[in-house]
Structures are given as C-alpha cells and as structure tokens.
Amino acid sequence: MFSKGNLAVICWLWRSMRKLFLLLSLLLSHAAHLEGKKDNQFIWKPGPWGRCTGDCGPGGVQSRALWCFHLEGWTGHLSNCDESNRPPKERSCFRVCDWHSDLFQWEVSDWHHCVLVPSNLGQARPRTAECVTAQHGLQHRAVRCIQKLNRTVVVNEICEHFAPQPPTEQACLIPCPRDCVVSEFSQWSECSRGCQRQLQHRIRAAISPPLYGGSQCPNLTESRACDTPMSCPLGEEEYTFSLKVGPWSKCRLPHLKEISLSGRTVLDFSSDSKERVTFRHQSYKPHHHPKPWDLEIGYQTRQVWCTRSDGRNAVLSLCMQDSFPLTVQSCIMPKDCETTEWSSWSPCSKTCRSESLSPGFRSRSRKVKHVAIGGGKECPELLEKEACIVEELLQPCHRYSWRTSEWKECQVSLLLEQQDPRWHVTGPVCGGGIQTRDVYCAQSIPASTIQKAKEVSRPVKKTLCLGPAPSASQLCNIPCSTDCIVSSWSDWGLCIHENCRDPQGRKGFRMRRRHVLMESTGSAGHCPHLVESIPCEDPMCYRWLVSEGICIPDHGKCGLGHRVLKAICQNDQGEDVSGSLCPASPPPERMACEIPCRMDCVLSEWTEWSSCSQSCSNKNSDGKQTRSRTILALAGEGGKPCPPSQALQEYRSCNDHSCMQLYWETLPWGPCSEDTLVTALNATIGWNGEATCGVGIQTRRVFCVKSHVGQVMTKRCPDSTRPETVRPCLLPCKKDCIVTAFSEWTPCPRSCQPGNATVKQSRYRIIIQEAANGGQECPDTLFEERECEDISLCPMYRWKPQKWSPCILVPESVRQGIMGSSEPCGKGVQTRVVSCISDDNQSAEVMECLKQTNGMPPLVQECAVPCRDDCTFTVWSRFTPCSANCETSRSRRRQLTGKSRKKEKCQDSDLYPLIETELCPCDVFISQPYGNWSDCILPEGRREPQRGFRIQGDGKECGKGVRFRAIACSDKNGRPVDPSHCSSSGYIQEECVIPCPFDCKLSDWSSWGSCSSSCGIGVRIRSKWLKEKPYNGGRPCPRLDLKNQVHEAVPCYSECNQYSWVVEHWSPCKIHNELRSLRCGGGTQSRKIRCMNAADGEGGAVDNSLCNQDEIPPETQSCSLLCPSECVMSEWGPWSKCPQSCDPHSMQRRTRHLLRPPLNSRTCAEDSQVRPCLLNENCFQFQYNLTEWSTCQLSENATCGQGVRTRLLSCVRSDGKPVGVDQCEQRNLEKPQKVSIHCLVKCVVNCQLSGWTAWTECSKTCGHGGRMSRTRFIIMPTQGEGRPCPTELTQQKTCPVTPCYSWVLGNWSTCKLEGGDCGEGFQIRSLSCVVHNGSVSDLAISVDDALCGEMPFQDSILKQPCSVPCPGDCHLTEWSEWSTCELTCINGRSFETMGRQSRSRTFIVQSFENQDSCPQQVLETRPCTGGKCYHYTWKASLWNNNERTVWCQRSDGINVTGGCSPQARPAAIRQCNPACRKPFSYCTQGGVCGCEKGYIEIMRSNGFLDYCMKVPGSDDKKADAKNLAGKNRPVNSKIHDIFKGWSLQPLDPDGRVKIWVYGVSGGGFLIMIFLVFTSYLLCKKPKPHQSTPPQQKPLTLAYDGDLDM
C-alpha cells in the first residue's frame, strides 16, 4: 500500500515522464523524416493519365495524379520527394472528336508469309513424317494509324476512338514440305559412228521448285559412255578441231618505252615501268572546259587456241583459217563516274513542334563531275534523304481552323427563279430564300492572346484546315408583310364638339369608328384609317335623356292626365354624368297626356323611330325616319272619335349630313434618326436594354383626306383624332465593314521559269461584315495582283559535241609484237569532246545538261581503218526527188572506189549494196473514229456566279449541246500520225440534246370564293388546276382530285348584322266582317319587308337571298279591332330577363296595362304573364367558338417560308345558331388569346451544283485509251420535293489519239566470235524508233529516229558478252520452256491466288576430262495467274518375277520425279524372309512363302512353310476351288489380281492359327448337335396330342450346314 504522499509523487512523475516521452517521440519522428529525406527514401509514383480534354486535335490536355511513396510502401507528404525529379503532371495530347473519323484511319499491310509456330524450346519444328496436308503456322502484318491526307503515322489511340485495332497476327496453314518436281528424262542423245570414246546424255527440266523446306532439285543431266564395238588403233582416232577464242582482257595502257618519240611504238618486254602515256584528242582544247576529261586509249588482248573434240588442246596450225582472229584491239580505259562531295544537310523540313509524331526530313545532294566511261562504275545516288528529329525548343506549330463571314442578305429570287425561270420581280418579294457566306481557313488565335479589339485573321490555304468545312449556304426567310384586318363601321355618333373639355363655336363633328381585328405584320404591313368624321352644326357634348312613365289621370279613371318624365344627363359616350354639364335646363318633370274613356277611340303607343333610310344625304334625297301608331278600339257613341289615318304616322329627317367623310391618312414611318431633343433622354433611359446605340425618333406625314375628293386642308379634320407624327425608336447601331487582312502573296516560283512567260502573284481578302446603318463602307479592292519580280529565266543547256578524232589503232609496236602484222588498218577507236553549254554558248557544268537530257552523247565509238583487202566506197548520194504520186519511191547510190572495183568479193550486191530504195513520204491521211461518244456537253454558262454562289439557273443544264468522238489518224502505210492531219480538233462532233426536266405546272390560285355562311363562321375556297404534267425528272405534282385540281380552304367570318331584314309599319287592320255596319272584330294587316346591307350608305335594298331566310319577318298577321264596348289593354311589354344560367326554377314575367275600361262590368284580360326559363326555348346561353387552325397562308409573292395560320372567333348560341360577337361581348365572356400564329412552309429547293471544273489532263500522254474528265460538286442538296441531284457528277470524253513514239530494243543477235569457231564473243541488239497506239506490239512500225527524240545512251543494254561451246566443252543448255502454272493446294483447294511456273538450264558433259569444269544447273521461278491444282499419286506396273515399276504421276498424266510422298511409296520388289527354298514354293505378294498350283501348304507351328504336299486329284475342279484357289503363280491378269486375296490361309505369317478357323470349327460343332437332335425328334413315335413339327426348316438347316462344310 502507498501512502497518499507517495501516490501524489508517483502521479507527478508519471505526468512528467509522459510529456518527456511525447517530446522524445516527436524528435525521433522528425529525425527519421530528415534521415529518410537525406537518404532519398521517397520516390515519385505517378498515376495513369486521364482523359484528353480541351480543343479537338493536338490542343488537348491530359493530367494525372502524383504520389510520394516511401520505399517501404507507405505514402508521405509531397514535400518528402525530390522536387527536381518530379514527373510532369500534365501533358499535351491529341483530343479525338467525332469528325476526326474523316481524317484518320487504320492502315494494314498485307499478311506476311506464314511461318511455323515455334516449339517450346523456341525453335521451329523440324520436318517430320507426321505432316499429312499442312502444318500450323502464324502470319503477321503491320497495323498503324495514319492521317489520310499525307499518310503520316500517328498514335494508335486516335484510331481506336472510332474502330478497334485490327488484329496483327492470325493462324495460318503451311502446306507440307514439297520437294522439287522434275520431268521425265529425255531420250539418250545419239552416239556418232566412230571408234573414239564418246559420251551420250539425257536431260530433264524442273516443273515445280522446292517449297516450304522441300528437297532441292536432283541432277537434271545424266551422262554415260557410248558402247563402241572396238577401240581405235593408236594414232588413228577421228577428231575435229575448232579455233577457240578467249575473252578480251581488261583495257590497259602500253608502257612508256613501247612508244618511240616519232610516234612509233616499240615493245619493251623487260621493263616493269608503270608509267603511262595518254593518247589525247588533238582538238581537245582547254577553253572548252576548265578541266578536260582525259580519254585514255589503251589496248586489250585475247588468247586464241585450237581445241580437239575430246576437249584437249591441239597445235594451232590444225585450226588455221584464211583469216586469223583479231587478238589485239584499241579500247578506252575505264573510268568511274566522279561526283562532288556531299553538300551540307538542308534544314529540317519540320520547323515547328506539332503534336503529330511524324518526323521531318532533310536532304543533301552531290553533282556529277564526269560520267562513267568504258564500262566504269556508274554514278551513285545523287540525292540522300533522312529523317530529322524535331527539337523541343522549337515553337509550337500554328493551328488553323475554319472561319466564316456573316450571312449575306436573304435572296428570295434564287428560289423563285428556280421554280419558274421566266419569273421576274413584280413587287416586294418575301418568303423562303437562300443566303450565302464566305468560308475560309485562318490561323487559330489562342484565347490568351486575343486582343480586346476585334481581330480578324488573314485567310490561308484551305488545305491547312482539317475537318469538314462549314456550310456556305442555307435556307432563309424574309417575313411577309400583311395588312390589318378591321371590323365594319359603327353607326354615326351624335354631333359633338371637337374637344368637349373646351367647347368652342357652333361647328362640331359626327364620327363613326371601326377597330382592328388583326394587327398588321412586317415592315410593309398597312392599317387603314379607323375614324371617319362629318362636320355638323350645333354640337352638344352632353344631352338630356328623357324616359316617360305611364299616363296617370288627373281626375277619375279617364280623361286628362300626366306622365312623369325622368331626365338623365349623358355624355357623347352614353355615360351618365352630372346634370350640371348639360347645357340647357332639365326638361319638365311632367307631361300632359290623355286616357281614353269608355266610348273613346283607343290608339296604341307610338312605335320606335325606324332606321334611317340613308346613311347620308346627297343632292337627290335625304334620309327619313318614320313612326306610327294604330287604332286599337273604335269610338262608341258620344266617345272621342279616332284621328284620321294621316295622324297615325309621323316623319322626321335623319342623317342630313353630307356623304363626304373626312379622315386622317398617314404615310409609313420614316427611318430612325438622331434628334438633339432626345439627347438628354438617351443619357437616362436604356431603350430595351440597348442604351449604347441610343434612342432616336421616327416621323411620318399626316394629312386630311376627304373621301372621293382627296387631300384637303388639315383644319377640316378633327384635331383630336389626328394620329401621331413622331415616336421614339431604337437607333440601329452603326456597323462598319469588317474585312480580313490581305492573305499572303501567292509565292513566286523559286526555281527559274522556262521562256519569257510573266508570272503573277496575287492576294485577296474577304468581307466578314457588310457596312450597315451609316457605318464605314467596305473597300473597293478585295483582290490584288502583281507581277513577280526577279524571276530568273531557266537557261537552256545542251550538249555540244566536237568532231570525231581520227581512228586510233593499237600502237604499231604492240600490234607487231602480238600479231606480227605491220599494216596499220583494222578496228580502232575514235573519241570526241562533248561539252555542256548554255543558250549563250557559255560553258556550264555537266550536271545542268544531265538534268535536261536523258543522258550524255557517246564520247567514244568504234571505227575502222580500211586494209588493203577491204572494199571501199564513195559517200552515199542524196535521195532522188519524189513526185506527187504517193506510189513512187526514192533512191540513193554509191560506187566502189580504187582497187575495190576489181575485187570479186566487193561485187556481191547482197553484202555490199550500191543502191538503197525507200518509199516516198505521202500526205494522204486516213481518219477512223475511235472509242465511244462522250457525254453530251453543253456550252459553258456564265462565269460570274453571284457572290461566289452558283445556282442551276446560272448555266444551262439542258438543251442543245455537242458530243465528241475521238479519231485515230494514220498515213497511207497505216502508221499513226498526229490527229491534226485529219481534223483540227482531233474529234468528230455532232449535236445532241439533253432533255430539260419539266416540273408539274399548276395555274395561279383562283380568287377566293364567297364565305359559305352569311352569319358567323364559314369556309372560303380557292383552287388551282393542272396545266402541264411533269416529265424528264421534273418536280412531281401535289395530290390532285378527279378534276385535276388542288383546293385550299380557309375559315371565314361574316358579320351577322351585315345583311338584315328591314320592315315597314303594319298597315291598318282590315276587318274580315262583311257586314258593313260592324267595323270591329278580327282582321289582317300587312307590311313590306326588304333585305338591306348595313354597310351601304345609300340604304338601298339588296337581294333577299343575302339575308337569313330562317329569320325572315312575317309580311301579314292577324289583328283585331276592338269594339266600343270592349275592354282595351295595352300591348304586352318585353319579357323580363332570365338569369344567365337559365335556371328552370326562375320565372320570366311580362305585363300590360288597362287602356280603356269595358262598358259593362265584365273583367278585362290578365295584365301579367309568367313562364319558366327553359334553355333553348326562351333562355339562351352564349359561348365563343374557334375554328381549327387554317393551313399555313403565305403572301401572294411567296412560295415558301414563314406564313400565318389563323383561326376565327364567333359567337354561338346554345341552340347552335350563330349570332353576332357582341352577344358574347355583352356577357363579358373570356375571349381566347391567339387567333393567329406564325408557321413555316418548307422550301422546295432543287439540287444546287457548282460549275464544272476545267478538263483534266489526258490520262495518257499518247495512244488509245486516254480520257479527260471534269467534275462538279453539290453545294446544297435537294430539299423537300425539289429536283434531285444528278447521279453523274463527272463528265468524260476520249482524248485525241496522238501517236506514241518509243525506243524499242531488238532481239539479240547470234553470238559473234570475230573469226573464231567457238569461245567467248558478244552479241548485240539494235535500238529503233517505232510508232504505235499506246502498246508496243507487233503492230509497232519503225519510223525516223528523230521522232523519238534523244536516244538513251546506254551501251550496256545494246551489247553483252556471250559464249559458243566448243566440241568437248561442258556447257549449259538453253532454257527449258516455262512449265504450266501450278497452285499450291491443300486437299484440292487453292492455298494461294498466284501460282508459279519454272524453267531450268542444265549442263551437258561432252568429255570426261572436262566434267570438273561444268557450271551449276540453274532454276528460275516466276509468279503466274490462272494456275491449276495438281495432285501427285504413285503408280505401279504389274508384278513380274516379284518385281514391278513404281513411278509418280501428276493428275494431268505427266510422269514426274518428286511430288509424291516418299513414305507412301509402294514396294517395287517382293522379298520373303527367310527365302522360299522349299520345292514347289514361291514368295507371295503378302511376303510369305506359298505353294504352287496343285500343292497345299503344310505349315510349322511357328507359321513358316514346312513343305508343299501335292493335292490328290489336283486336276479336279472342286479340289481346285477348295484347296488351291489363289496358290498359282501370279500371271499378268487383272482378274487374278482381283481374286488373289481370296485364298484360304488358316495360319498367320508368324505361325498362329487365325481366328476364323476357331469360328468355323465352333459353328460346325453346333450344327452337328442340332442335326442329331432333329433326327431324334423325327424318329420318335409322336404322341396323340402333339402336332408334327415342320420338316422344311431342319432340312434347310441341314442343307446349309452341308454347304458350309
């Protein structure tokens, strides 16, 4: 136990230790951190790169995360890692966008050859016998992502964005190894008769080369000694001798001592001096070239010896001939081509850093100092290129993107001209059109460097921009303007002051108004005036409106009385106002009246005044109104009598104003302009948020117009209704013209130009924004051109050859030392100097001439100095002149000179012709059409398309044109000549017609029909009818009805009160009672009715059919005239109004009052009536009715684009009857908002094509088959039902057939040995100029060499060494014929598309002594087409003494060596082991010993033959069949071959008993048991209840068993 003090000490110690421990741990961790940092225990580990983001193309950026890892695996703070080794966190990348699919693609190479799959040990498997048909292999190919334009390689990730990477390897089959296949040997060559030792040979040819590791070809030659009956006696062998010439030695120079100072040559055989002397051309002077080429002439020798037919050498005298072969001749010392040193490397072609991985290139060159001479080494490559690596310090490459100008104004006429070429502007056009813009390529400006001011990049070549270009045209729309739709006029108002607030004078105006039903649209939309006024007198702005009460008697029940009058003051709008405003004092409150007494005449109340007969007064008539009252009851005796009939009617004049109305007319608003008065307003008000452009004013003219007269003074129209003349407006912002900077000048050619042609360079700029609203105008110059300065003309260089030197022979001393001849004659060499000069004969470098010509003229040629025995001739004379006749020929001659005339050999005209004849040139030419007719080509259209945009109307697309057919022109001898000899153009031309497409043509719209309803909503119809059907691909017709018409219907609305029935007053009641004494009672009365147009100011009647026939008022009605004693009641008053809901529980009431009491006390009729409010009977509800939207209506001048769809508003009663809209308005019903909306009619656009490009160059420079073409492009595809684009956008025509001139090599001559019988020589071939029609064939005809131009100077193609074998030499044969084309096949199916065929050369040994010097046999293979699959099978002959012939045969029946599988080869010899030595035994085909016919084999237990035992009665046929079948010796019979395998052999070759022997024994034993059992059953006594078994079956079995025995 601790005390409390100790415990406190311990706690204090613990706290102190804990703080100390914490501090120590912090220090340790910090030390560890410093130590780890010091020892570099932390490393950077980056994460994977993220997705490429940013702009499309090489401007993308991708990033990745970075971690700082300790070596032990835990992460630390980033500051722990070394900052200098920090990997990059971001890198630029190529961001792939969808449109890049048009720029990049996978490029795959062809599959490489199939190679065997390596085994586990990494080695190819050896050829084994297991291969039956083919072996498994792999083949690879190169796959890379390339840019289509320049085919440069880029990273694969770009193409993987669009398509997965194609596989780079695939499994394949390699056919089994195939050995070389050779044909059968030929027959042995014949041996000549003689006693000397001879060889005979036979040869064979290679048919198929070894493939897939097969064995090489065997020897193609076999030789053997001839069988000579006896050898020749010594020294009497028969040999032939041949003079053999060896090859010429290399050219060498004679030693200096061999040439004497006098020019004669002496051979010095003792000197080893290496000094050389140079024979130089005498006329080769230094001023032609600063460093003349040294042409050194030396000599070369060859050996000549005599060979014997057995291959041995013999004495030269045995081969001596008349002329000994030349053994020494002059030659040119070979000199290699000399070039200058390499120039320095050119700068790298890549001058900036791009994101594509393609490297740049640099090159260097060297020049030829002089060409190879005398077989020296030819010139090496003169230009060398290599890739160069782009330095990281280079600036990034500029990036380019497509830019566009603003859209130009919409052109409606383009579409209208398309639809009707005869269309012309007749008014303002609107609707759908086409607008264009310029598309150009410009350098992209990085966002960080864009200036605040608008910067426009200069245009560059369009090829620099990648991706599809933006569209240069689009459909557009010019809104059509529509006028206002207004209501009909209201009634004329009362005469009021012009300004009721300040009434002045006694003149005022009466007015009528109308309101806008549909506002105008567009800038040209117009609204008519809405107010008309008429001047009047005594105007009153306020009037008293008096209403009368019923007549109240003053005393009693009848007689005089009074009416109470109620007066209300109203303004001109009909609104109640204070009575103080009315000018006069109010009318009296009472008015006297009279109530009839019992016997008085009773009259009705006055009717309302009728409508005015005219709306205005003219000179002939005034307006009138009438009212009337009728007699209700007659007066009795003593009563007050009825007034006369004239007193029952009253008349008053109305509408006495003039018919000339006055109204304000306005002109359209003017443009928005600045005004100083609104400057302060601009500072404070932002008009629609665009205060920057300011607020201006618009003005218009307003003038007063009098109908039917015209403009009158302004003061005659009421000023209160004067329209505004000034209104504020938004000032349109000024738009200055914006143009791009000028493009760079097109580069002037850096290289020189041929001739004196002027080369121009140009530049251009593009209008980005047109000037508008007074902005700065565009410059006039958009294209500039100037001539290139300092263009050097290409100097023309040519070879200038000097004269040939005299013929230089071998030095005389050399010739004498070798040949022993001293006559200076024979073959030699002559040289000349060829220099390169310019046009002004100035010396130039060889390289300049080599660039402009095919080669250099020969510097050396062979020559000959005639010897004494040679034939000499004069120079050829000129050709004789030709006559005009084409059949003639011309000739030239030469003559023998000197002693040649007497020499016999020179007289041979075949060897030495003295006359040459050739046909004269003929100017008769024959033309023959060639090729097909071209397309029909129309004449060129206009070349100035509007603003760079061409439509089909700009050029002819149909009509008359010309088609062409080329002609081939030849001379009389069939040689092709230039077609200009036969036709100026080289074509036959004929007219042709391209049928024009005709669109469906309809008539114009008819005028709108009248509205189908006279009140409310109806339908108006207009129509078009077919005028012309479409054909030749024209635009189809819309859907037509049976009458070939197309209709358009729109809703219409008729004012319901436009035509109304007007009734006159009823006539007096005519009593039916015939008794004249009685003038009261029932009767009839009539009235006149007429239909009137409310809009007609004259009030004239119209046809009754225009008014609603359902509402026609009655013309007659029954009436009654009350008698004096009867009670008289007034007419019924109007029914009270029903509630708007037409509640049937609510009642409707009307009343009447007593006019005269009855004479007696009889009660009068009721004075009030009630009835329920029943819907559609006496109560009606009303609602607005909307039609469906109409079709899209366009302006008259528009064919497509923006239009208006309308719907009409009407008021309909609940019983379906249309009523005036005022009925709905009075009830304050909610009115629908929109009655018109904008709509769009799609424009039908024909296919828009560009103009034709220029004709391309001919695809062939000469001859047949050349074609020229031109193309056009689709600018805007077809829209809607427009004419489709043509399928053919390319036209072609055959080029004129010009003759082809070519140098053609002739066949090699026979080997020339120059005097020898065999050995080494040379063969030559000629180079001739031929004319042909594009293919050098048998039809090529030789012509003058000048037509082919410069000859290619290459001696190596005209001369080659050859050899002629001597008798006894071992030599190669000629090439065998090419074998048939054979494919490599597996199981009869082709393994490859190209086959191969072979040929071979083998050697022939003529002497055993020379067989060691034989050359190797040669095999050549070439690919071929049209090959076949062949298979090879072993064939064998019949056995003959256990031998047969086995051979391989191809499926086409050719016997070959090779091709068949060696493992499957059948045996050719039959051998038994051990050998068959027993008597009467022989070796069978199965390889075992058997016995001859008539003997049976007795076998040992080990299966071998023990001995042969003679079969008793071996002549018996049965014994032959059972025991000796197949034991006879094989004969050459196919039947025997078929049945020879059927012999009974109970033992195997190893001596064991065969299985079938046990089977037969077991079967026989069972049959015996069965027979015994059956016999027992047959012999047993049968029981009564058992049936006898059938007997056929055991008998049959017994028989069968016997047969088997």
How does this structure look, described?
The protein is built from 11 helices and 101 strands. The chain is mainly beta and about 1600 residues long. β44 (about 700-705) and β45 form a beta hairpin. The two termini are about 125 Å apart. Strands 15-13-97-96-95 form a 5-stranded antiparallel sheet, with no helix packed on it. Strands 20-19-17-83-86 form a 5-stranded mixed sheet, with no helix packed on it. The protein is about 10% helix and about 30% strand.
How would you sum up this structure in a few lines?
The protein is mainly beta. Helices cover about 10% and strands about 30% of the residues. The chain has a five-stranded antiparallel sheet with strand order 15-13-97-96-95, with no helix packed on it.
